[in-house]
Amino acid sequence: MSPAPHPFDEAIRLEPLADGEFAGRSSPAYWNMVGPYGGITAAQLLQALMSRPERLGDPVSLTVNFAGPVAEGPFRIRTELMRSNRSTQHWSATLLQGDGDDSVAAIAMAVFGTRRPVWSHTEARPPAIAPYEALPRLSRPEAPAFTRRYDLRFERSPFESISTDSRSACWIADHPPRPLDFPALASACDVFFPRIFLRRGRLVPVGTVSLNIYFHADAAALAEQGSAPMLGAALCHVYQSGYFDQHGELWGRGERLLATTHQIVWYRE
Amino acid sequence: MSPAPHPFDEAIRLEPLADGEFAGRSSPAYWNMVGPYGGITAAQLLQALMSRPERLGDPVSLTVNFAGPVAEGPFRIRTELMRSNRSTQHWSATLLQGDGDDSVAAIAMAVFGTRRPVWSHTEARPPAIAPYEALPRLSRPEAPAFTRRYDLRFERSPFESISTDSRSACWIADHPPRPLDFPALASACDVFFPRIFLRRGRLVPVGTVSLNIYFHADAAALAEQGSAPMLGAALCHVYQSGYFDQHGELWGRGERLLATTHQIVWYRE
Question: Which residue among B84, B116, B249 sits closest to A242, beta carbon to beta carbon?
Fold first, then answer.
């Protein structure tokens, strides 16, 4: 008897159809308040692109615009190679559900590329935080399902009190542990709690409008990371008239910056 | 006799064709080393979307992936409304030049939305720099044409010496002055010199692969800014195996954060 698949592998499982289309299902295991967790949608879109046999190299950037709600049940992902160059490829992907004018639930663009052993340097510094082993795993039974798919560890609960700024650091790992790959890294880029929750000291209605990810690691660096927890840092620059931005960093073993990520989030007060 | 149009208006002038397509020309006035300045391409794509009569509200985010070189001469921009919601719209745009498999030069996604007078707060702080009037305009006759379309003022020339970090601040204005609008703001988001030039103290081959812009101001805020110079700040997190990231902020009058921007840039060493 083979062991049950990891919930993440279950969530990103896609069936190839004709003409670069894939069939999948929205994931109850990664459910957020009113639809799937945005990170899992990003992972599904990336997984579709990674599954195309023409794919060249590793992901360099991924942008996902969340156009409308994703409902429970089946969806299709349409992928298109927009242009192939010598060392980079430009892809687009569209997540469709149902028929009609509002069938587009998410649109994405990605760049794939080959990396080269040239002069490299990390200028940013990882945040200071107590060791993973010294901190308790965040436990909020009332939180949406997707939070239970992660092992998140903070020095102080991000919901404890109103923060004077939105900076926070935490440990991030899949739960149960799972060796890191690009879809999992993409998903983890959306795991930072909306900065406005920290600033207002309460939950307010929010929705990510656009999620942007830059990958700074190749497949070999992700293999080296394995299932070790990553260190995350996040902050906000501005909350303005119904939209705020959020910037995140995901650090791996050996102070290696694996990804930087940005999102713009709709909010209501 | 009417005065000559501003070079920026000349550059973003588009002729509407059928079915959401527009005809334009690459701009010699905004030429970079081997093709048009990326900011002007972003502005042209945004201008096409702004010209669609169905457009709702103001731009919230714009992502442009630079798929291939743009040559001198005519191009077409194909725009598509992917989904329209109550207060947001999701658009895509493709810049095409010539025929055949390599006709896609750039692809873009944008979110437009209406803003609401809700709780707002700017958490980031503008960089410290001497007043605009106290600094000389950067003058480098050997630099590409697009640099002469801007009035850029630094406390110390970014090319003077090798920096120990990539942070820099500068004043940014269109030259000659021009009242700020969304295409001009998008264009200015690409004006920060590639951080690797600062770190290496010399020019190295680079090319922006993906440019991401979050707009934090509505049309009224841009009108208030008028043609006053903006204050810019930029930094890099990591240079890794042929790609580095770059983060920028554009500040307006009264410490108003007008836009934040990110890009991932290919480099060779």
Answer: B116
At A224, which CATH number? 2.40.160.210
Asked if residue A244 is part of any domain, the answer here is yes
Counted domains in chain A: 1
Sorted by sequence, the CB contacts under 8 Å of residue A113 that are 6+ apart come out as: A56, A57, A58, A60, A87, A88, A89, B209, B242, B243, B266
Give the span between the Cα atoms of A229 and A129, in whole angstroms: 13
- Which whole number is the average pLDDT over B158-182? 86
Please report the residues numbered 100 through 129 in chain A whose beta carbons come closer than 8 angstroms to any beta carbon of chain B: 101-102, 104, 107, 109, 111, 113-124
Has residue B163 been placed in a domain? yes
What tokens appear for B66 in the block?
């630079």
Residue B163 has pLDDT above 80, yes or no: no
**Distance in angstroms (rounded) separating the CA atoms of residues B165 and B179:** 33
Q: How far is A132 from chain B (nearest CA, A)?
A: 24
**pLDDT tens column, B70-105:** 999 999 999 999 999 999 999 999 999 998 777 999
Residue of B nearest to A62 (CA): B210
Mean pLDDT (chain B) is 94
Residue A126 lies in a domain: no
Among residues B266, B196, B199, B203, the alpha carbon closest in space to that of A115 is found at B266
φ/ψ (deg, to 5) at B165: -140, 170
Mean pLDDT of B242-248: 97
Could you list the residue range(s) of the whole structural domain that residue A72 is in? 7-114+137-267
Name the residue among B101, B102, B165 with its Cβ closest to that of A123.
B165
Percent of chain B with pLDDT over 70: 97
d(CA A227, CA A249): 18
Q: What is the mean pLDDT of residues B156-179?
A: 84
Residue closest to B193 by CA, chosen among B160, B234, B146, B231:
B234
Integer Cα distance of A138 and A175 in angstroms: 12
d(CA B34, CA B186): 21
In a domain, B124, yes or no: no
**ipTM of this predicted structure:** 0.96
Residue A1: its pLDDT value, please?
A: 61
Instruction: Point out the residues of chain A with pLDDT beneath 70.
Output: 1, 158-164
